């Protein structure tokens, strides 16, 4: 598949990469829309050094579920979905206190887990079990759905 990959500071390019592997407890999403966020630019320019390289950036995305892992029953092929920009564990002290945005084990999409600047993506399994993959109404366009994270201002 084709993806926008950051190889290091100032080195962003479109390249062929391996398709993501569908996990038994996740979904394969065909990314149809992904916004460019200021944090994506900070990764590219080397200002935010938390990202692992090479990395497919992009955390404000929406798409269509193309395949469903055999242990997933909450999503179906064809569902329109968004993926939260960060996936919390649900088990650490911060998550248990209800402040999942301060999770001690956060999996940030586009930093340590491949993001949405690709044809396909498989979110972390925790994204499904902890509620960070969300169905969107079929009458909502995907280019509008990507604004969900920015409009909410948190995850």
UniProtKB/TrEMBL annotation:
PANTHER family in the record: L-THREONINE 3-DEHYDROGENASE (PTHR43401:SF2)
Protein name, per record: Alcohol dehydrogenase-like N-terminal domain-containing protein
GO molecular function, one term: oxidoreductase activity
Metal-binding found in the keyword field: yes
Metal-binding keyword on record: yes
Organism, as annotated: marine sediment metagenome
Keywords, ordered alphabetically: Metal-binding, Oxidoreductase, Zinc
Classification via InterPro entries: ADH-like_N, ADH_Zn_CS, GroES-like_sf, Zn_alcohol_dh
Domain Alcohol dehydrogenase-like N-terminal: from-to ranges: 25-125
């Amino acid at each position: 598949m084709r993806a926008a990959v950051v190889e290091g500071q100032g080195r962003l390019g479109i390249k062929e990469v391996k398709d993501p592997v569908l996990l038994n407890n996740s979904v394969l999403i065909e990314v149809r829309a992904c916004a460019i966020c200021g944090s994506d630019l900070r990764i590219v320019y080397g200002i935010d050094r938390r990202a692992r390289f090479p990395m497919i950036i992009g955390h404000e995305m929406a798409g269509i579920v193309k395949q469903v892992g055999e242990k997933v029953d909450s999503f179906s092929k064809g569902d329109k979905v968004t993926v939260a920009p960060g996936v919390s564990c649900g088990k650490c002290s911060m998550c248990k206190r209800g402040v999942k945005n301060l999770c001690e084990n956060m999996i940030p999409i586009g930093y340590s887990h491949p993001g949405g600047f690709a044809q396909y993506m498989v979110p972390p399994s925790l994204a499904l079990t902890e509620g960070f993959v969300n169905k969107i109404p079929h009458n909502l366009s995907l280019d509008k759905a990507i604004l969900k994270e920015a409009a909410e201002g948190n995850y």
